[in-house]
Amino acid sequence: MSDKQAAKALNQSFEQIADNRYDITDYKSGSEASRGLAETHEQLSDAYVVAGANQADAVNEAASASEKEKSPSAAALPEDCVFDEDTQE
Is position 19 within any domain? Predict the structure, then answer.
């Protein structure tokens, strides 16, 4: 295949892909471009879901750490601020 033929074939592939939008039937399509589009869509979707889950975990961890900072434990309080259950003071 000459360089000119290869460039033409590549350009046709680009046009075929650019003209397509994902459709659920692409998985079973006879077109290599459509099957590739379906696979790429699935990979991107999976990556998006994983990234969202990771971001949610990070937000939850940050919120949990922030709550711990806001409510110090009794051990961190000065002795005169700790409630004594025996004396009720």
Answer: yes
